[in-house]
Amino acid sequence: MKKIQVITLFPEMFDGVFNSSMMWKAQKEGAVQFGLVNLREFGIGPRKQVDDMPYGGGDGMLLKPEPLFAAVEAAKANDPTARVVIMTPRGRRWKQSEAKAWATDTRGIIFICGRYEGYDERILTLVDDEVSVGDYVLTGGELPAMTIADSIVRLLPGVLGGEMSAEIESFSDGETLEFPQYTRPEEFRGLKVPDVLLSGNHAAIDKWRLEHSEKANP
Ligand code: SAH
Questions:
Q1: Contact 37, 74 (CB under 8 A)
Q2: Pairing of β 129-132 and β 83-93
Q3: What pLDDT does 94 receive?
Q4: Distance from the CA of 190 to the center of ligand 1, in angstroms?
Q5: Cα 56–Cα 62–Cα 67 angle in degrees, nearest 5
Q6: Tell me, what's the pLDDT at 162?
Q7: Ligand 1 touching residue 89 (CB < 6 A)
Q8: 95-129: buried (b, 16+ CB within 10 Å) or exposed (e) per residue?
Q9: Whole-prediction pTM value?
């Protein structure tokens, strides 16, 4: 069973995503176990402080090292061999090939979700990977962690069931995007499904699909 833990100040954000549809099914079937670690519980003092001002000046606050280190150590105590992954726009961009690799190995994952202007850089001494979901800035690492977790969990054995969809879909060969797809009815508001797809001629269908697969974005 894949263990995925998330260190976050907003654990409630994960309720909807982890407890619906495929993510919920994957837990029910024992393919994945999610754990939420509330960073606030590791905050300092009566106000459970987790953030502080950056040295050298600048706008905004950073997550302090003490609560972050304590939270990572607590998560590691649950799963000592887990890979620790921090969400950051500075990280390498997440790709389908990596989702596949991480779904296939048995290592657990601990996601650290940054907030505010980010985190004290010293946390990187406990981090194995820095990952970005794209070249834009979000308010926190929660949506990236959900995105990456989803991309991995759907590839865990048994989660997509007998469907071959993960084998033929976009990026699965690292290069191409999936061909266009249609379902019933054959004609809708005057828009018709391409004839070849109704032909039953599998060679012709394969050829059409190949021609209509697009190259992935650079
Ligand atoms: N000051 C930082 C951005 C902070 S955004 C900068 O300029 O790079 C707050 C947190 O949201 C980050 O620490 C990170 O954990 C998360 N985050 C924002 N955008 C992200 C992205 N594209 N990929 C992954 N994590 C992201």
A1: yes
A2: parallel
A3: 98
A4: 45
A5: 125
A6: 52
A7: yes
A8: ebebbbebbeeeebbbbbbbbbebbbeebeebbee
A9: 0.94
Q: Whose CA is nearest to atom 22 of ligand 1?
A: 89
Q: In which region does residue 161 sit, left (phi positive, over 0), alpha (psi from -120 to 50) or beta (all else)?
A: left
Reading the block at residue 147, the tokens are 């995105």
Q: Helices 142-153 and 21-28 sit at what angle, rounded to 10 degrees?
A: 60
Contact yes or no for 168/162 (Cβ under 8 A) = no
- Position in ligand 1 atom list of the atom nearest CA 134: 22
Q: How far apart are CA 137 and CA 171, in angstroms?
A: 24
C-beta of 132 in contact with ligand 1 (< 6 A): yes
pLDDT tens digits, 139-157: 999 999 999 999 999 999 9
145-191 pLDDT, tens digit each: 999 999 999 999 989 875 556 566 788 777 789 999 999 999 999 99
The per-residue pLDDT of the chain, averaged, comes to 95
Amino acid at 116: Y
Q: Tell me: cis bond preceding 180? Omega within 30 of 0 counts.
A: no
Pick from 156, 138, 141, 67: nearest CA to 111: 141
Determine the atom of ligand 1 nearest the C-alpha atom of 132: 23
